[in-house]
Here is the input.
Amino acid sequence: MQSRREFAAASPYSSRMRILIADDHPLFRGALAQAVRTVAAGAQIEEVGSFDAALAELAAYPHTDLVLLDLHMPGSHGLMALATLRAEYPAVAVAMVSAHDDVTTVQRALVHGALGFISKRSSLDELQAALRTVLAAQTWVPPPLREDLSSHPPALAERHLAARLAALSPQQMRVLVLVADGLLNKQIADRLGVQERTIKAHLSAIFERLDVRNRTQASVLLRSLELADPAQRLDP
Here is the structure.
């Protein structure tokens, strides 16, 4: 796994640094890309508008240095996307980007492996400061939340969940995601190109590592990372 020191060794101004921006809002994605170019002039920047596209990009370029990941975009399901990326690409740093920036959400993102949390409410100067911080492999959180975050440690249950999910192999996480999507063993085997008995073996390992008894309980654990997008809520 790439350490923060190794990540920081790839200078923000080096053409060796590759940054993926995953956000479904073209205007903000463009603004974020421009801010990255301002603080990391030599970096190679790629942009995608969905989580599936982000996964495809990482499959093609697994040595990507940093992903700037929108919390709410097609296919992301809130923090499930973060957990998936951390399992499949543990050497890739991930910073969450969202206007859904309350203390609890930011805290949960950090527990599940985010390098930082960048608010879409940020001014240009603050956005650039956030990017410089994460590119230096240091944690960034919105300044107004720092005191609350430091005085309120994350819930023990959240830390335990993060540790259990982190114990899964990349293939086990893929299986778990498909189980949570409601697919049967044969469907999962066909999707992943393996035999059904392999999926059964993975499920046994998943149940043990997550300390659950069945696929329903495993699905509930993963689905607990889902977050409703406040922008999509309608008043009754």
Remarks:
- Residues 4-151 form a domain with the Rossmann fold fold (CATH 3.40.50.2300).
- Residues 11 and 178 are 37 Å apart (CA to CA).
